[in-house]
Amino acid sequence: MPDPVDVTIRDESIRLGQFLKLANLIESGSEAKPVLAQGAVTVNGEVETRRGRQLVLGDVVILGGVAARVADQSAGDNLPW
Question: Which pTM was predicted?
Answer without folding.
Answer: 0.87
